[in-house]
Design a protein that fits this description.
The complex is a heterodimer. By secondary structure, chain A is of the alpha/beta class. Chain A has 2 domains: 377 residues, no CATH class; 66 residues, no CATH class. Chain A has 10 helices and 21 strands. Helix content of chain B is 27%, strand content 34%. Chain B is built from 13 helices and 24 strands. In chain B, strands 5, 6, 8, 9, 11, 12, 14, 16, 17, 19, 21 and 23 form a 12-stranded mixed β-sheet that branches. Chain B has a 10-stranded mixed β-sheet with strand order 4-3-7-10-13-15-18-20-22-24. Classes of the chains: A alpha/beta, B alpha/beta. The interface between A and B is large, with 39 and 41 residues.
Chain lengths: 462, 480
């Protein structure tokens, strides 16, 4: 296997038994990768995240992992997750290998395909060929980039470095396909696990909803603390009238570098409700993008909590291409200790996208004097009959609220923890997935340093 | 590229379009050129020497200029912000001395054709009325500068920058180039190399200059550059309001204005700096202005950008000591072919500092207005507070607006908010006003005036009226 390096970019890809179109696409992407430099802070989109100390060449491709024989053999973290998930169908990937899969057979009867992407390439080559790279290509411009020549936010070429890398070398990920008019009640879940120290993965997930299809998909990532890297891409394609609820939970262990782009293309009348959770890794860079056609609707929610030396960088794009679409973004984050949080969001409204209704809000809570927050909420509006607004607030925990709680006999540390929890829970209230919310409450409690069962103290007392 | 987009971003506005723009621009006329010195086009060491010699400057200033010229050459044209590709820096006259009669203290001494210009602009008239002092710059030099006696008696200094350098060398040298060094940016560097004209203001401790000081800037010649440099020092506990107005004739080729404004607001003092920028639509207006604000002092920028082809201007306030406060009110109107890239910067260095930025912009036809701002709070600026509000009004379907606010916070106890909204004229409001007998045009005008009211009301009455009138002019024919 080839080493991943910046100094001597790899010139060949490993032999793969894949269709010619895919090999060709990989080769082209590799050219783009080799052509682009690792973005420096001089690149606007990387202004606040310095990759100088990140050395891709220190990582080797992940080794194959054998499927598990019984549920007990699953890594404990994953076993816990599977025992309390909303997901009715689940697949577990360790590194690039499927180690566990439990997909109800009635899905197949409805024509739903839920498998790993590598398998899908051979089992459903036509579908994969039709949709893979259609939402996130190897390089800009991607298919949704219209008339952008005079925009200020012409992405810098080097921003393509990691999408090109993923397009060239991705090994595995998930593939979900829901045919026309099929609605699934129960959520599906893809779990990704990393256990090999010093290894990297380039994971790629493709979710396709045909016309009027409806599904909930949960994307979880977990690992112990280890030196590793993930260069991820998630493509979400929603055909006319489709309805997707998507949840991404990044809870890697410390030491992981995570660079991922999640993009959704919404055809007319499609609806996306999404939640992006960032809790783990040491360096996390998430690019969340939504491209909206006529009358589509995209809800983009996020919570993040960075502590110790964690660095979370979130870049968002609400791209209104056609009229009457609606987008609503709320990113709430907590920064503790020496953590650094970056939010850079853009609402871009194209010339013809009249009647756009777009909202963007970033709220940051600072818990420490050593934490640092950078927030850049941006608008580029090219149509006049629109309603667009954005807001950004950065503040410490509210003294008045603290005072109120303390007057009720609650100690300051506990009161502070309650307020931090409430700050994030506010977003979870908008997510109707009971077990996901319960799990996230635990993750938050863990981050806040709250005693066990802390979240439910008030409800128990009622 | 689709044709519609090609057209809206074209650098070459056809003559017919210029004629149309000029119809609305009432200051588009020009006077014949009859100049004492007109340096050759382009920027060179010779031109810098010529300027320095003509001003009989001390040696350190020539040295400062030459160093700045090197800095200017070493810096690339910024890639962010407005499109500057149409700006031909070699096709500009960097120094034009219109007359030997500089800094006259009575209008009678100002040469006739220049005086006619300012008469037409109504400057001497307003001086008699409501100003403490007036300066007038024509091309590269101040041709008139006068401060009413009552203020002079109190020790207020209001001179051309050259006279300030000559008559108050120590005060001048102590502050010149300290707030905005030539290294700051490319356009501050070019100004530092070729600066000419501008004002020097000093208000002594505790003196309250209750009526405004004003300087009026006029570019007359085609392809000329104006690089005024203003230095204002408000001593402890003092107050002043300085107003700057600008116009130029309309030509088919571009002129270039790049001023540098340095302000020092000492302990407990308050300064207000107002700009009504109404350059003709062929001027590149790239200005650097910054105030250093000390303990408990207040700096207020009122920045109105109506004219020019391209403006890049972000009044900056550095809150250096505890309790300092900064306010920026920015209003921009962009119509056909214009890009107003305006906004503001506030940097909090000290505890208990506070700031507020309110920006209102109106985009008409294919005009583009952008808010670009920075709020930075350094570690240790305990309890710093900042609030930013940006509202944009879009009048036509091809109007455009952007918001690029940067919020950088290193201090836990800081509290920072930013809000922006974009909307078009509310149909219901127009309908309501029309049902009361207003024409659609009058109704729209009224709504626009209401939109900018929070900023217009901060201007002295005469200027608020002027601002409203200018906006009305720009709005003419906007309905239908």
């Amino acid at each position: 296997m080839t080493q991943l390096t910046t100094q001597s970019p790899f010139t060949t890809l490993p032999d793969r038994a894949e269709p010619a179109w895919l090999l060709e696409a990989r080769a082209k992407a590799l050219e783009i990768y080799n052509d682009r430099a690792v973005p420096t802070t001089a690149v606007e989109a990387w202004k606040y995240t310095n990759l100088r100390r990140f050395k891709p060449e220190n990582f080797a491709p992940a080794n194959a992992v054998n499927p598990i024989s019984s549920l007990e053999a699953l890594p404990e973290k994953i076993r816990d997750r599977l025992s309390s998930t909303d997901a009715a169908g689940r697949i577990v990937l360790s590194g690039n290998s499927v180690i566990y899969s439990d997909v109800p057979s009635e899905l197949e009867k409805k024509g739903v395909i839920f498998t790993d992407l590598k398998t899908a390439v051979s089992s459903h080559p036509d579908l994969v060929q039709k949709y893979l790279y259609s939402v996130v290509g190897a390089a800009y411009p991607d298919p949704s980039a219209l008339a952008l020549e005079r925009y200020e936010h012409i992405p810098h070429l080097d921003e393509d470095k990691f999408t090109a890398l993923n397009a060239a070398i991705w090994e595995n990920g998930f593939f979900l396909y829901v045919p026309k008019n099929v609605e699934l009640e129960l959520p599906l879940g893809g779990f990704r696990y990393l256990e090999q120290d010093g290894a990297f993965v380039a994971s790629r997930t493709l979710v396709v909803l045909e016309e009027n299809a409806k599904v909930t998909y949960i994307d979880e990532q977990d690992s112990p603390d280890l030196k590793s890297a993930n260069f991820g891409v998630v493509e979400l394609f929603l055909a006319k009238g489709a309805n997707l609820r998507y949840v991404a939970i990044q809870n890697w262990g410390r030491g992981v570098t995570h660079i991922q782009r999640i993009k959704s293309n919404l055809e007319s009348d499609a609806t996306l409700n999404s939640l992006y959770v960032t809790m783990g890794s040491s360096l996390s860079r998430t690019e969340v993008q939504s491209a909206l056609q006529t009358n589509s609707s995209s809800e983009m929610l996020a919570i993040y909590f960075a502590d110790k030396d964690q660095h979370f960088d979130q870049q968002t794009l609400q791209h209104h291409i056609m009229p009457r679409a609606h987008s609503d973004l709320l990113f709430k984050g907590v920064l503790a200790d020496q953590a650094r949080g970056v939010f850079s969001g853009l609402i871009k409204v194209e010339l013809n996208a009249q009647k756009t209704d777009a909202y963007q809000k970033n709220r940051t809570l600072l818990l420490s004097d050593e934490a640092r927050s950078d927030s850049v909420p941006q608008l580029e509006i090219n149509a006049n009959d629109v309603r667009c607004s954005h807001g950004s607030t950065t503040a410490p925990v509210d003294e008045q609220e603290l005072f109120y709680l303390r007057s009720r006999g609650i100690t300051r540390p506990i009161a502070e923890k309650m307020l931090v929890t409430a700050f994030l829970e506010d977003v979870l209230n908008r997510v109707p997935l009971k077990n996901v919310v319960k799990y996230l409450e635990e993750v938050i409690a863990n981050k806040v340093g709250a005693p066990k069962g802390f979240n439910r103290i008030e409800t128990d007392e009622k | 590229m689709p044709e519609a987009i090609e057209e809206r971003f074209s650098d070459n506005i056809p003559d017919a379009a210029i004629a149309q723009i000029n119809e609305a621009y009432e200051f588009g006329w020009s006077q014949p050129e009859n100049y004492t010195i007109k340096a050759p086009k382009g920027l060179s060491r010779e031109v810098v020497e010529l300027i320095s010699k003509s001003k009989e400057e001390p040696a350190w200033m020539l040295e400062f200029r030459m160093k700045a010229l090197d800095i200017y050459r070493s810096k690339p044209i910024p890639k962010w912000g407005a499109d500057l590709s149409g700006l031909d820096l070699e096709n500009i006259y960097y120094y034009i001395k219109p007359t030997d009669m500089l800094n006259s203290r009575t209008w009678d001494d100002v040469p006739d054709d220049i005086k006619r210009t300012f008469d037409k602009l109504g400057i001497p008239e307003s001086e008699r009325g409501m100003l403490a002092g007036v300066g007038a710059q024509y091309e590269s030099e101040m041709v008139y500068h006068n401060l009413k006696e009552e203020w002079e008696k109190l020790g207020v200094i209001f001179l051309s920058i050259e006279d300030g350098m000559r008559e108050h060398p120590e005060l001048f040298r102590e502050h010149f180039g300290t707030v905005i060094p030539p290294e700051d940016n490319k356009f501050a560097a070019v100004n530092s190399a070729v600066w000419s004209g501008g004002s020097f203001v000093y208000v002594p401790k505790g003196v309250q200059v209750e009526v405004p000081l004003q300087t009026y800037f006029r570019i007359n010649a085609e392809n000329s550059g104006q690089f005024e440099r203003t230095l204002i020092i408000i001593d402890e506990g003092a107050y002043a309001h300085y107003i700057e107005g600008c116009t130029a004739p309309s030509y088919s080729s571009d002129s270039f204005h790049s001023g540098v404004i340095e302000i020092v607001v000492k302990k407990g003092a308050r300064m207000r700096y107002s700009t009504i920028q109404n350059w003709s639509h062929n001027v590149y207006n790239l200005v650097t202005q910054r105030a250093a604000v000390y303990e408990g002092a207040v700096m207020e920028w009122v920045d109105g950008n109506l004219g020019s082809k391209v403006t890049m201007k972000y009044p900056a306030t550095y809150l250096l000591e505890p309790g300092a406060r900064g306010e920026i009110l920015s209003i921009a109107m962009a119509t056909t072919g214009q890009h107003q890239d305006a906004g503001g910067k506030v940097v909090h260095f000290a505890p208990n500092t506070s700031s507020s930025i309110v920006s209102k912009s109106i985009s008409k036809n294919n005009g583009r207005s952008s808010y670009r701002g920075l709020v930075k709070i350094y570690d240790g600026a305990k309890n710093a507070k900042s609030n930013v509000e940006c509202d944009a009004l879009l009048l036509n379907d091809d109007s455009r607006t952007d918001t690029y606010p940067y919020i950088e916070i290193e201090e836990k106890t800081a509290s920072v908010g930013h809000e922006a909204t974009v909307s078009k004229i509310n149909d219901e409001q127009v309908f309501y006003l029309m049902s009361r007998g207003l024409s659609e045009e009058a109704a729209t005008g009224l709504i626009v005036r209401g939109f900018i009211e929070p900023i217009a009301k901060e201007l002295p009455l005469e200027y608020a009226v002027e601002l409203n009138r200018l906006i009305e002019l720009e709005m003419e024919g906007s309905v239908g």
